[in-house]
Design goal:
This protein is of the alpha/beta class. It has 2 domains: about 1-30 and about 95-175, Four Helix Bundle (Hemerythrin (Met), subunit A); about 180-385, P-loop containing nucleotide triphosphate hydrolases (Rossmann fold), CATH 3.40.50. Helix content is about 55%, strand content about 10%. The protein has helices spanning about 5-30, 40-50, 55-60, 80-85, 95-105, 110-130, 135-145, 150-160, 160-175, 180-185, 205-215, 235-245, 260-270, 290-300, 315-330, 345-355, 375-385, and strands at about 190-195, 220-225, 250, 275-280, 305-310, 335-340, 360-365, 370-375. Strands 3-2-4-1-5-6-7-8 form an 8-stranded mixed beta sheet, sandwiched between helices. Helix 12 (about 235-245) links the parallel strand 2 (about 220-225) and strand 3 (about 250). Helix 7 (about 135-145) packs antiparallel against helix 9. The longest helix is centred in the N-terminal third of the chain and has 29 residues, at about 5-30. Bound molecules: guanosine-5'-diphosphate. Guanosine-5'-diphosphate (GDP) binds near residues 342 and 364.
Length: about 375
């Protein structure tokens, strides 16, 4: 996942940083004292710029330099500036006044206008990777907010300012609504009832089987329930997984009431001390009133602990739209994105949480029962930048 997007994001960060380097050099050339405006002086801005813990000279010596920045107050050197020595030489041999001039010229090197062309490229990159439009906007806003008016000093002291700004903006949209799935399961009264929704063919049945394996690995027993009483062959499909995993399946005849199936599974779990009930539902479109009525009836009568929406990462924008619509029609608690192993874009993984306000909890990463990964926003963002 993310192979295409990774390259585009790294293109954005290096383009902006390159631009900043060029501007800082150009501004230093323009304003450094005669005879000193050389390339090496400009580089000196980078090399000799103190880190955030020692940024005293520029502000002390050039108090009226218009920074135009939003630098955080706690990074402002003004307090330390009061203690700065009046005039002395640093190891470069420049007086602090000279150095301050160079530093002051290099201060406001990232502003909105400079950024805009790069942000336009970034927007295109996100949209072409199937990131939802509103989510792309949110990421751009985040990057802009994190970067606009930042100083050269801070850039050179972190070295990763642009990348960090992008990371943070991505993390903010990816991590919406995150909760600890295992903790929630552990805290709930047993049996824990989890119901799955989503359209057909996306890997819903396989995901239920994978979660049965997931719980088994954590010492929790499961019973499966086929609440998809609509589709011919659904019982057999789930029965196959149940047989493979040696799990009990509760099913009724095709056409019967899904609530009754899940109710029976809950009763079975209570009678047999089973920890978790995993209930499939019919995979029809959210626009199908019958399905939504069924979900509502399950909600009313069973009151599941969680309703998880399953869709395939490879469906990109379609998956994002379905997540939004399912959530509006029958509130979900979280999502599982399958076939992440076959999705080079990653747009759905980036968008679903922000669009629904509910977290992605798992990624399906293959066809085997243990091809299920807990969705960790931090790790996902790392993957985008490693
Ligand atoms: P359902 O109709 O939504 O229940 O879909 P199924 O569970 O039957 O899955 C449809 C197909 O997708 C099957 O061939 C599964 O093996 C495959 N599949 C499910 N999850 C994944 C996944 O995470 N990665 C890959 N590559 N294939 C998957």
């Amino acid at each position: 996942m993310f192979d295409g997007l990774k390259d585009k994001l790294s293109g954005f960060t290096s383009d902006v940083e390159e631009d900043v380097d060029e501007e800082a050099a150009a501004e230093a050339d323009e304003q450094a004292p005669d005879g000193e405006a050389t390339d090496s002086d400009a580089e000196g801005v980078t090399d000799e710029t103190p880190g955030p813990d020692a940024p005293v000279e520029a502000d002390a010596a050039a108090p009226d330099a218009d920074t135009g920045t939003d630098v955080d107050a706690d990074e402002s050197p003004s307090e330390e500036a009061a203690d700065a020595p009046e005039e002395s030489e640093d190891t470069s041999g420049r007086s602090l006044t000279q150095k301050a001039k160079i530093m002051a010229t290099g201060k406001t090197v990232i502003d909105e206008a400079d950024l805009q062309k790069h942000l336009d490229d970034l927007e295109l990159a996100l949209l072409s990777s199937d990131v939802e439009m509103g989510v792309a906007q949110e990421i751009l806003e985040g990057v802009k907010e994190n970067l606009t008016g930042q100083t050269r000093r801070r850039l050179s002291s972190t070295g990763n300012l642009v990348r960090d700004a992008l990371r943070e903006a991505l993390y903010d949209v990816i991590s919406v609504g995150q909760f600890d799935f295992d903790e929630r399961v552990a805290a709930a009264d047993k049996p824990v009832v989890i119901v799955f929704t989503g359209v057909n063919g996306v890997g819903k049945t396989t995901t239920i089987a994978k979660l049965a394996q997931y719980f088994e690995d954590r010492g929790l027993s499961t019973v499966l329930a086929n609440g998809d009483t609509f589709r011919a062959g659904a019982n057999e499909q789930l029965q196959k997984h149940a047989d493979n995993l040696e799990k009990k399946l509760i099913s009724h005849e095709q056409g019967s009431d899904p609530t009754a199936v899940i109710y029976d599974a809950v009763e079975y779990a209570k009678a047999n001390d089973v920890d978790v009930v995993l209930g499939d539902t019919a995979g029809r479109l959210h626009t199908n009133d019958g399905l939504m009525d069924q979900l509502e009836k399950i909600d009313r009568n069973i009151d599941p602990d969680m309703t998880l929406f399953v869709d395939e990462a490879v469906a990109g924008q379609d998956a994002v739209n379905r997540a939004r619509e399912f959530n509006e029609a029958a509130a979900i608690d979280g999502a599982v994105l399958t076939k992440a192993d076959a999705d080079p874009q990653g747009g759905a993984a980036i968008s679903v949480a922000h669009v629904t306000g509910k977290p992605i909890l798992f990624l399906g990463t293959g066809q085997d029962y243990d091809d299920l990964e807990a969705f960790e926003p931090e790790e996902i963002v790392d993957r985008l930048f490693d």
